[in-house]
Design brief:
Structural class: alpha/beta
Largest sheet: 8 strands, mixed
CATH architecture of the largest domain: 3-Layer(aba) Sandwich
Number of domains: 3
Strand order of the largest sheet: 7-15-14-11-10-8-9-20
Helix content: 25-40%
CATH topology of the largest domain: Aspartate Aminotransferase, domain 2
CATH superfamily of the largest domain: Type I PLP-dependent aspartate aminotransferase-like (Major domain)
CATH class of the largest domain: Alpha Beta
Bound molecules: pyridoxal-5'-phosphate
Length: 494
Amino acid sequence: MLLDQYLLGPHAKLHEAISALEQGPVKLCVIVDEQGKVIRTVTNGDVRRALLQGLDLDSPVTDFPGQHPILLPDDASDADALATLDEHSIDVVVLVDENGRPTRFIDRLSLSKMLYLSPPHMGNGEAGYVQLAFEENYVAPAGSNLTAFESALCAFSGRKHALAVSSGTAGLHLALRVLDITAGDRVYVSDLTFVASVQPILYEQATPVLIDAEPVTWNMSPQALGRALARDAAAGTLPKAIIVVHLYGQSADMDAIMALANQYEVPVVEDAAESLGATYGNLASGAHGLLSVYSFNGNKIITTSGGGALMSDRADLMARAQKLSTQGRDDAEHYQHTEIAYNYRMSNVLAGIGRGQLEVLNERVAARRAIYDRYVEGLGDIPGLGFQAECTNSQGNRWLTVISLDPDQVPLHVYQLMRALRNNGVETRPAWKPMQMQPLLAGAEFEPHSLDESVGTSVFLRTLCLPSGSAMSVKEQDGVIASIRSVLSEGFAS
Ligand SMILES: Cc1ncc(COP(=O)(O)O)c(C=O)c1O
């Protein structure tokens, strides 16, 4: 961090130093000579001492009691910086280039920050679109941002219709409602997923049937799906929908899944909450099923702080979803309602954030894929450490990089690694706990990948999601890689 506001020239006065110190979070200003080289730094303590010695507000800062500035070369690591801060009992250190010119600060606060799994990453356009909503006084639900956001979503995904809603979960709920799923209907859903894929089935008191993952991409197993469909077709209990999740941004095997769904004439809802920006075949992830859902939750590849979208090529289904998302008002001049509906529409203000975020989506995908590549490069040689694979014919968005540790080769459980990394300031998370293991779904039907193997359970027990935020620097990522290597090597040594 280095902001011009903290730099002062050689003739700066005491009162200018006081103003600079008051401006921002960094309680230090840097005095540079005519060539921009650091002469000294000034802290609140220096100001206090100068006043006590009788200097007045117009005294030049170069008259302050002497001090050798504490400087570090610009390529110093965070660890070097921390050691320097500790050694001199200071909170900020200035880094300089080879000519002694300041390049940035490192302060204690930024060093102590946790590196999070997937924090929001704003671009340059979002604030302008939000401002537009204020200028147009369309802080109310609908407005030009909402229309433009939905058009941009259609253009990006290749789908004909988009309905921006308050969350991905709301989008999934609407998908089930427009498919007329009601109490007692069977709905197949990926077992290895976040609970939001399943909750809307429960809202409607329908019956979830949990379909296991396959061992390569950890997405819905076509093998398990085919077995379940054949059995249910024979029994006359086919599901009314199949909800397929694209886990951590990597697509499920949609050719195989769509072929089975078409064979048994069961509509597919893609839970593409995590996979916006991924592709499968020539199409965007979320462009294969009858309906699909994206999420713009704060941790997703792009965010509207909270939000989602329902997508489809079917105008009739989307018109129904639109009505259900706005309290189901009938076509009458007065307020008339004949069915249960919701207040699910996204606000025009949040759609403004979405417009800006969509403009940088391709960059975000490229950044997350590069992060994945660097993890593979930095960790791929560790025996027993693996990564979630991409389905052939697809390109994931690598929303999260997920590693697996083979218990036969790695002497640490992923939770031990997770806790050690937390102590090093690195947030990681276990993979989603499969739905079949959730108390909420106790007793739910489960179709395993093979008759003697539950893939979802073993994935859950040995995987960890790594920090994957698109704003993470190479240096930060190198720190994560070094931390993992060091924790694991201690485990191997013990
Ligand atoms: C697989 C999956 N489905 C659904 C959702 C629900 O999205 P939202 O949080 O926007 O409701 C999420 C994320 O939160 C998710 O990861």
